[in-house]
Specification:
Elements: H1 6-14, H2 19-22, E1 28-30, H3 35-45, E2 49-53, E3 59-64, H4 65-73, E4 88-89, H5 102-112, E5 116-121, E6 129-135, H6 136-147
Helix pairs in contact: 3-4
Bound molecules: adenosine-5'-diphosphate.
């Protein structure tokens, strides 16, 4: 018998859950894509958040459902407005890495009041390659795994 309380054991399990175990495939669009194409991609790929990349595949922005809804309320022609006009852009993006803890991602989602984070990799420390996506749904899956003691 370890003498550890149920609370301690649960805390230990929580501290073992990492992004790489729960991340999903990222869905990206180019910054030159139109708002119209981004809306189509969001429906076709069945995601709530799109990551925007530049010509060299580096992360430059994020598009949420409401970003696209807001853009659709305007009088602009959606086929001609590029997403880089309406996206949330670097350096205001909240990101994470595959070895980060799920609990730290959960804290960031709550603190920033957002639904998803891009999982990134950086070879030079200035540009970020998108390698995954972690959302509230992935965090919910982690919670269920904890309850099932996996
Ligand atoms: P929605 O806007 O559909 O409710 P979110 O709550 O995820 O979805 O997004 C709220 C705002 O925060 C949007 O303007 C979006 O561009 C921005 N946003 C979403 N994810 C991030 C992130 N990881 N880092 C910075 N901003 C983000």
């Amino acid at each position: 018998y370890t003498g550890k309380s149920g609370k301690q054991l649960l805390a230990e399990k929580v501290m073992k859950l990492t992004v790489k175990q729960y991340q999903s495939i990222p869905v990206v669009v180019k910054e030159s894509s139109s708002v119209y194409d981004a809306i189509c991609t969001m429906f076709l790929e069945d995601v709530g958040t799109l990551f925007v990349v530049d010509e060299s595949s580096s992360l430059v922005g994020i598009l949420s459902r409401k970003d696209l809804l807001r853009a659709s309320l305007g009088k602009q022609v959606l086929e001609t407005v590029p997403v880089n006009i309406i996206m949330t852009r670097m350096p205001n993006l909240t990101i994470c890495y595959k070895d980060d803890l799920i609990i730290d991602v959960a804290k960031k989602l709550i603190e920033k009041q957002i639904d998803a984070l891009p999982v990134v990799k950086s070879s030079d420390g200035t540009s970020y390659e998108v390698v995954g996506r972690i959302t509230k749904t992935n965090i919910t899956k982690a919670l269920v795994d904890l309850a099932n003691d996996e």
